[in-house]
Amino acid sequence: MNRRIQTVASIALASTLAAGAAWAQHRGRTAVPPPPDQSRTITIPCVEACNMLQHMRVWLFTPPPGSTAYGLGGLGEGRRVWALLPGCRQPNPDDPRDPCPVGNVSLEVGSGSGQVASTEPQNVTSDPNSRRVQSFVVPNSVESVRIRVHRHDGGVRYEAAVEAAQMRNFPEPQGSPSGSGYNFELSAYPSN
Questions:
Q1: What percent of the chain has pLDDT over 70?
Q2: Listed range (29-33, 77-81, 146-150) with the worst mean pLDDT
Q3: d(CA 86, CA 130)
Q4: Exposed e or buried b for every residue in 88-101, given b needs 16+ CB within 10 A?
Q5: Average pLDDT over residues 64-89
Q6: pTM of the complete model beyond 0.90
Q7: What's the CA gap between 80 and 78, in Å, rounded?
Q8: CA-to-CA distance for 131 and 190, rounded, in angstroms?
Q9: Which residues partner with 60 through β-bridges?
C-alpha cells in the first residue's frame, strides 16, 4: 500500500510540474511584445545632433541665399545644407591619431518622400590637407533626415535622425562669398 501511494504521488507530482511548465511556457509566449515597426524613425532635437557633430569637428550650415558654391547650384530645390568637415592628412607613424577621422557625411530620408541630393567632399583650399565641404539639398517633402558621419573606411561613426523642419535653424556660416565660391572663416570652426 505504501508503495502504491508513493507511485501515485510521484505521478501526480510529475503531472503537476509538466502542466506548470507548459502553462509558464504558454504565458511567456503571450508576454513577448510584437517586433517594433522597422520603418519608424525616432528623432532627436537638431541641436543635440549638431552638438555631437561639432565634437567630431563637423559643422552644419544653411548656405547664404543664392550661393551655388561647392556644387550646391546643381542639386535642385529644397532645404540647402553645407557640412564643413575636418581635413585629411597623410598618415604619420609618429602620430597615432586617425589621419582622416571623418571621411564624409550622408543625409538620408528617414520619413517622408523624395531623395536627398549631395556632393562628394571638396577641399576648401588648394592644400590637399585642407578642410572639406559637402553640399546637400533635402526636398521639402522629407519629414525627417538621418545624419550619418562616416569614417574614411566607410564605417558609421555617428548616426542620428532629426526633423527636417528643424534644419532651417542651422546657422549661416561665418565667411564671405568669393566669386562663385565661398570663403569660410575657418578660425570660427575648430578642426582639432
A1: 79
A2: 29-33
A3: 8
A4: beeeeeeeeeeebb
A5: 92
A6: no
A7: 6
A8: 10
A9: 83
C-alpha pair distances (Å), 123 with each of 1, 4, 59, 136: 95, 91, 15, 16
DSSP string, the chain: -HHHHHHHHHHHHHHHHHHHHHHHHHHHHHHSPPPP-TT------HHHHHHHHHHTT-EEEPPPTT--GGGGGGS-SSEEEEEEE-------TT--S-S-S--EEEEEEEEESS--EE---EESSSSTTS-EEEEEEE-TTEEEEEEEEE-TTS-EEEEEEEEGGGGGGSPPPSEEEETTEEEE-GGGS---
| Alpha-carbon span 150 to 110, nearest angstrom | 17
pLDDT recorded at residue 13: 46
User: What does the block give as the cell for 34?
Assistant: 510584437
pLDDT tops 80 at residue 57: yes
Instruction: Write the single-letter amino acid at 145.
Output: V
